[in-house]
Write a structure and sequence with these properties.
Layout: H1 3-16, H2 28-37, H3 48-57, E1 61-63, E2 75-77, H4 78-85, H5 89-102, E3 106-110, H6 116-122, E4 129-134, H7 137-150, E5 155-159, H8 162-168, E6 175-180, H9 186-199, E7 200-208, H10 215-225, E8 232-235, E9 240-243, E10 251-254
Parallel strand pairs: 3-4, 3-6, 4-5, 6-7, 8-10
Antiparallel strand pairs: 1-2, 7-9, 8-9
Helix pairs in contact: 3-7, 5-6, 9-10
The protein binds S-adenosylmethionine.
Protein name: Methyltransferase family protein
GO biological process, one term: methylation
Keywords: Methyltransferase, Transferase
Length: 257
């Protein structure tokens, strides 16, 4: 992670992004997305209830992930790790609103961490089933226990590597929305995207987190956008969304959020 890179790239995004409140967007699909999803997201609740219960049951310290961009055998305080790896409320609320408005039946998340983004995907969206995959057993166990204690029943936490998870999927299993938030390297992101394409429903949304986390992540996002199966790409600063629906006109957006 390079903090200076993140600051410069985010500033560049702020300068270049447009379509505030949908201005200048001709595509009815994207206009509706901006007006009814992006602009409504801030009204959604945050994940404080989830974080409170998690901190109540989790140990005070926890191992750092050995699957990330910089694998580690060290431990960290659970509170700090929660803060460091979890999606922010601003973007978590956007995930929540997307699921609420588009009602994907099957959602796949690659990288549960401690379950915060899974909670945003699942909360108040009982008709969507979230499958979240996490290689660190300690993280998966804590997330599972927190969901159980809060009575959230539409999340299945799968403690497995992504490789094993994809190998064991039945060929007919398809996902309507996929959130990719695994190791933040170029190779892992491209590989996770390509494997996601295979299990994506024809009109699926594929969301990539932390596209400005590093030079490699931004390069991965720029390459993903060029994939021939991608119809529309939309850059919202921290996250990028790929829309696969073949009826959409090919277009790239950089939208102010
Ligand atoms: C950034 S964290 C996820 C944070 C979470 N999505 C959130 O916002 O609350 C990435 C997670 O992906 C897991 N991970 C990375 N590569 C993996 C792999 N190949 N198989 C399984 N888990 C992996 C890491 O252990 C880590 O917990």
């Amino acid at each position: 992670m390079n903090k200076a890179f993140q600051i410069v790239e985010y500033a560049r995004y702020l300068l270049k992004s447009e379509h505030w409140r949908g201005h200048g967007v001709h595509s009815p699909f994207m206009y509706k997305f901006i007006r009814e999803t992006l602009m409504k997201a801030s009204k959604k609740p945050n994940a404080s209830q989830y974080a409170k219960e998690l901190k109540r049951i989790a140990p005070r310290t926890i191992a750092k992930s050995n699957f990330g961009a910089s694998p580690s055998n060290e431990t960290d305080s659970t509170t700090r790790l929660l803060q460091k790896i979890s999606i922010s409320p601003k973007y978590g609320k956007l995930l929540n609103t997307i699921v609420c408005n588009y009602g994907p039946k099957e959602v796949l998340e690659l990288g549960s961490g401690l379950g915060v983004s899974s909670y945003y995907l699942a909360n108040s969206n009982p008709n969507s089933h979230i499958v979240t995959v996490e290689g660190m057993k300690a993280y998966a166990d804590i997330a599972q226990a927190t969901f159980k204690n809060l009575g959230v029943t539409n999340v299945s936490v799968n403690n497995s590597t992504f490789n094993v998870f994809f190998e064991n999927l039945t060929p007919t299993q398809k996902f309507d929305l996929i959130f990719i938030d695994g190791a933040h390297t170029y190779e892992a992101t491209i590989s996770n995207f390509e494997r996601s394409l295979i299990v994506a429903a024809p009109e699926a949304f594929i969301i990539l987190d932390d596209i400005r986390w590093s030079e490699d992540m931004l390069r991965a996002w720029n390459d993903v956008k060029q994939h021939p199966k991608v119809r529309v790409s939309a850059d919202f600063g921290r996250i990028g969304i790929i829309f696969l629906n073949p009826v959409l006109q090919k277009q790239e957006y950089q939208v102010r959020y």
